[in-house]
Amino acid sequence: MKKLVVFSGAGMSAESGISTFRDSNGLWENYDIQDVATPEAWAKDPELVQRFYNERRKNILDAQPNEAHDIIASLEQHFDVHVITQNIDDLHERAGSHHVFHLHGNIRLAKSSAPNAQYSTEFYPIQGSELYLEKDKCPAGYPLRPHVVWFGEAVPAYEQAISIIQEADLFIVIGSTLSVYPVAGLIHEIPTSCQAFYIDPQASYQRVPHQYECLKMNATDGMQQLYTQFIT
Length: 232
What we know:
By secondary structure, the chain is an alpha/beta fold.
């Protein structure tokens, strides 16, 4: 069975109503990213950061997978499908995808805020949308923070993502501006024999090598086209 790897970005979830900060000049739901998505922000005002992610978590819980998520999940009937996502939501999982690899964490999980927490491998499921500073703590007594890779933190999953991509027969980049590094560099890790596609309304060869086929479409339209191409 051929290995199909999907690399999804914020545009994938936008069709489910989840906003992306890059569409609004560095503001995410009227918050400055530096105030809510960095280790320095947590050190300065953990209550603000926790409140921000509680709001994001509620939005994600209220959202539903879109048709592009559903199509990717359905392709497991025909391919060995692995999803590598930059998104912190769980919409791929809720659509039915079984092999989802989160590069930037999963907002439905929490981890310790202890020093070097960015490298933690212990995660705690969050029931509902709320995580509380005073009540929710790790066994060592540190408040739990969202399992999210913040700006300025390492991406511990990066090397494992490379190994997955290097085995791909088919590779789809979908809904990513390819402007967040180091993860944007993953597009260069595909084998020379790999058939590759880039789905995005702004898709162009200024962003990807010519090994890719650019589809200037939203996530759903692009996946509908590729499903037809792959299955018929």
